[in-house]
């Protein structure tokens, strides 16, 4: 039975009570109508969550009014997850806490803190987050977790999925679980018995099908941010551990992550950088296996449009200038090490490989920090400026980094239906990210990008 749709603003105001910020003013709604993608969705109402209880209240208002809910933080994603035409809930303003733990080996974050802010707290300890998205100055931790962000140099080994240690999440039912609690499994089973039973059933179903197991292993051996992390059914035993890792890359369709603890990685002491320009995208991608095997820490691919955007910067690396732009492609290549001798070995191997490739311009490695930063900005910055230069169509983003390929597309799924879908398939293409119906047995689907 579909719930009767009524004013989401009234439901939110009643749930939030005195002091809650709820607005239907046009100027506030337009402010949240666009993220960094090509999409434009003007919400009916916007509100600010002050804490996890407010998020649970917003879930109730969404279900009661039959209105889709989107949780919004940085809004930096290029794929449109940060927009919605229902309830827009800001979970950035009041969720910016950062706490360094164990001498920088771990860090506790809230979803509104940016990657750069967290890394600034970790810098005195010589540590940083594993994920290093290009939009680190604006991308927030909610989106890093919700999208399983990785970046140029973390690949699959140090992505969010593999560095998350614990989290506090809020389910659409209002259940709040801190997975670090000693009795968290018992809390989860007691509060959500149907969900726990479903997770156990799906685990048996996945593991009992050899074809499913092989498909999942094959898909998640690569850098893969499409769909839910169903590899959690193979990687973990306990229902709560499985669900915790399903939340990573769920884009807010399963729960709100109010806080998380992540393991950090050591900042490399030394690095050397080069930009190699190839005559075609095919030539660039064919060089990737050899470069990967040479221990390259970063392999960032720029197609001809990205090179064109990079040429508009104030400080442009000479390697992407000086030729007529056609179908060329470029790779930003970095080697990292903690010892000078090791770095030189990597650099020599990379230089030898580059002399064997057909390049448009001469590729030279440099350890100069300012030049390396300029080259890095040309790659990272061209990705951030894509929306201004790309055609008005859903973007497809190509990036490589110690892991070959990542393709980012916009997924969508409902909270309950996602748990009963065939585990080996991606999120249903028939589901629409912009609408949801609330039934008497399942809460209204919510979506979030917190990037």
Structure write-up:
The protein has 451 residues and is of the alpha+beta class. The chain is 35% helix and 17% strand. It has 18 helices and 17 strands. Strands 1-2-4-3-17 form a 5-stranded mixed β-sheet. The chain has a 5-stranded antiparallel β-sheet with strand order 5-6-10-8-9. Helix 1 (8-16) packs antiparallel against helix 3 (52-65) and helix 8 (193-207) packs across helix 11. The chain is globular and about 65 Å long. The protein starts with 7 loop residues before the first helix and ends with a strand. The model is unreliable at 384-451 (pLDDT under 50).
Largest sheet: 5 strands, mixed
Structural class: alpha+beta
Considering DSSP H and I runs of 4 or more, what fraction of the residues is helical?
Answer: 25-40%
Quick check: average pLDDT?
Answer: 82
What is the count of β-strands?
A: 17
Give the secondary structure arrangement, pairings included:
Blueprint: H1 8-16, E1 21-23, H2 26-31, E2 45-48, H3 52-65, E3 69-72, E4 87-90, E5 98-101, E6 106-109, H4 115-122, E7 127-128, H5 141-146, H6 160-163, E8 164-170, E9 176-178, H7 184-191, H8 193-207, H9 210-220, H10 232-235, H11 239-247, E10 256-263, E11 265-266, E12 270-278, H12 281-286, H13 288-293, E13 298-302, H14 304-310, E14 329-337, H15 340-356, H16 369-384, H17 386-389, E15 397-399, E16 406-408, H18 415-420, E17 446-449
Parallel strand pairs: 2-4, 3-4, 3-17
Antiparallel strand pairs: 1-2, 5-6, 6-10, 7-11, 8-9, 8-10, 12-14, 13-14, 15-16
Helix pairs in contact: 1-3, 7-8, 8-11, 14-16
